[in-house]
Write a structure and sequence with these properties.
By secondary structure, the protein is mainly alpha-helical. Helices cover 41% and strands 0% of the residues. It has helices at 4-14, 19-24, 26-42, 59-65, 103-106. Helix 1 crosses helix 3. The longest helix has 17 residues, at 26-42. The radius of gyration is 15 Å and the shape is globular. Residues 107-111 have low confidence and may be disordered.
Length: 111
Amino acid sequence: MPETAREYIHQRLAQGMTIDEIRADQAALNRLSVQMQVEMEHSPSPEDFLILDQGSPDHFVSCRISEVDPNDFLPGCIHRRYATVFILVPLRYVGDGTREKDASLVKGMDG
């Protein structure tokens, strides 16, 4: 399944917004990507096998990093249960202009 924040950014770019305009409203970015994540996770049937880049609770971290209060839009995410969770060694980060990370957050993730 696609990363919802990236999907949100691509949708807004297609509507004519600039990346700076999108990033300027971190609350909207977080709120709408959480909403998209929850909808995406609930859309398939229970028999479907999904692999997610991240789960709903991961958005709590992005809210904290961007200093956005998660309490307005994350209550439904903290009770989310997944059948299996894999934590893998991160790949080397390569910026692509869509989801730029702060260098201090990426440090140590280069392999």
